């Protein structure tokens, strides 16, 4: 209850109302004291006028007048002289004198708080102006016991009234918060929970209906977010289904192409010049198709085996990649160069590293061939205290803008016609499996440069 929104509003309302009542209580109790003392002055004035109206008055009547006025004596100044009109014995000396004629609000509040803080009864002198111009000054002496008791009684009644007002105000605010805030918020939460149970169901998307502007905006934002998420989930579901279908087709197609590859091995043995000339191209085409099927199947598994790290002579891996790629180009079309220190040994999975570099070199070779201009592919490597750095650069036409935007996204970052874009995606995953990073340094009309960074140290 106390941790809820309405519960905290209830507590804050009570606290603030009581604080406001306290701020009101202080001047109210000061005003009550002022009225109490002025009332004593008025009653004393009436008693003194009754005495002046008669020629002679008994001691008992004088005592009764003083008791009714609530004072010990009365001094009235009508002309320039002061006259003790009524008097009685004073039990103790006068401690303080208060002049009610020119008292400021601060002085009244200060004196009232001091009276409440002083429990011992005292005798005080109070001066004021007579009512109806019945003289110049009236002065009385009285005991503070009745004054303090009356102030305490008045203060308790004020505090009780404040408590009732606080309770009623807090209850009204509690009901208002429940109606206008808590209930709409619970409705939004209920919609969110319902949507979370089945986000693909468009019927569970919230329909904005709140009357409060801020809640209405929150509901509209939630509706937009839920609509976009539902569409994205449906798209991902379709892509997942498409990926499953592609994996099945690639699996069967790989088997068919593998059989065709066996037949092409026999075709290469033919003595027909035309067959000898066309057979290598047919072998290369079938090999690429088989590789594409295997790549698609590997990506469809959504995981790559962890690298088996060992010491690898990088020059040997680069030589194998270049030797393989040279078989796919005609003389003078693409030239290969390497700048690899013969003694450079790195810690990596040899097979996975070969796949990464082969993917990058193959992409560079295809880009140069598609441009129709001779080009060069260079592979270089260096090492620092922290990393091994391998760079694959080419003098091709550079990557298109769309390919750079979706460079490492499967089925979106393809560069060559008919490409899937899986090569770079898989290469990046393999490099990250080594704890490294594959980055595109630059790509423009002068060529493209990829950098592979592999850390020398292990993870603690």
TrEMBL record:
Reaction equation(s) it catalyzes: ATP + protein L-histidine = ADP + protein N-phospho-L-histidine
PROSITE patterns assigned: HIS_KIN
Chain coiled-coil ranges: 215-242
EC number(s) stated in the UniProt entry for this protein: 2.7.13.3
Domain Histidine kinase span(s) in chain numbering: 248-458
GO CC, alphabetical: membrane
KW Membrane (keyword) present: yes
Subcellular location: Membrane
Transmembrane portions of the chain: 6-30, 158-177
Keywords: Coiled coil, Kinase, Membrane, Phosphoprotein, Transferase, Transmembrane, Transmembrane helix
SMART domains: HATPase_c, HisKA
Protein name stated in the entry: histidine kinase
Lineage: Bacteria, Pseudomonadati, Pseudomonadota, Alphaproteobacteria, Rhodobacterales
């Amino acid at each position: 209850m106390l941790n809820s929104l309405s519960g905290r509003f209830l507590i804050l309302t009570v606290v603030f109302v009581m604080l406001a009542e306290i701020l009101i209580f202080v001047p109210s109790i000061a005003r009550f004291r002022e009225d109490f003392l002025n009332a004593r002055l008025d009653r004393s004035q009436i008693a003194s006028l009754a005495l002046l109206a008669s020629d002679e008055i008994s001691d008992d009547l004088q005592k009764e007048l003083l008791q009714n006025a609530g004072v010990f004596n009365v001094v009235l100044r009508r002309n320039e002289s002061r006259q003790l009109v009524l008097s009685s014995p004073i039990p103790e000396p006068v401690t303080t004198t208060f002049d009610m004629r020119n008292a400021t609000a601060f002085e009244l509040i200060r004196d009232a708080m001091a009276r409440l803080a002083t429990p011992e009864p005292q005798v005080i002198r109070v001066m004021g102006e007579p009512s109806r111009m019945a003289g110049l000054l009236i002065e009385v002496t009285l005991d503070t016991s009745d004054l303090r008791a009356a102030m305490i009684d008045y203060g308790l009644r004020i505090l009780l009234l404040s408590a009732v007002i606080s309770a009623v105000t807090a209850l009204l605010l509690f009901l208002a918060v429940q109606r206008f805030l808590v209930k709409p918020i619970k409705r939004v939460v209920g919609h969110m929970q319902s949507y979370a149970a089945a986000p693909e169901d468009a019927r569970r998307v919230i329909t904005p209906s709140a009357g409060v502007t801020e809640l209405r905006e929150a509901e509209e934002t939630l509706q937009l977010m839920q609509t976009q998420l539902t569409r994205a989930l449906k798209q991902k579901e379709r892509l997942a289904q498409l990926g499953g279908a592609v994996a099945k087709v690639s699996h069967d197609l790989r088997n068919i192409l593998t059989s065709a590859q066996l037949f092409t091995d026999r075709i290469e043995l033919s003595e027909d010049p035309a067959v000898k000339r066309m057979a290598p191209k047919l072998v290369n085409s079938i090999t690429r198709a088989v590789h594409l099927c295997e790549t698609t199947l590997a990506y469809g598994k959504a995981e790559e085996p962890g690298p088996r790290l060992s010491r690898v002579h990088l020059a040997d891996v680069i030589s194998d990649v270049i030797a393989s790629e040279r078989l796919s180009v005609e003389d003078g079309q693409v030239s290969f160069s390497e700048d690899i220190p013969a003694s450079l040994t790195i810690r990596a999975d040899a097979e996975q590293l070969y796949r990464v570099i082969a993917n990058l070199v193959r992409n560079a070779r295809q880009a140069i061939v598609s441009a129709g201009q001779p080009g060069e592919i260079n592979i270089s490597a260096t090492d620092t205290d922290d990393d091994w750095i391998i760079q694959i650069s080419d003098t091709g036409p550079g990557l298109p803008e769309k390919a750079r935007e979706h460079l490492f996204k499967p089925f979106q970052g393809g560069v060559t016609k008919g490409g899937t874009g899986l090569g770079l995606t898989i290469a990046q995953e393999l490099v990250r499996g080594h704890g490294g990073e594959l980055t595109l340094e630059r790509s423009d009309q002068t060529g493209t440069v990829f950098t592979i960074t592999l850390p020398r140290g292990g993870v603690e």
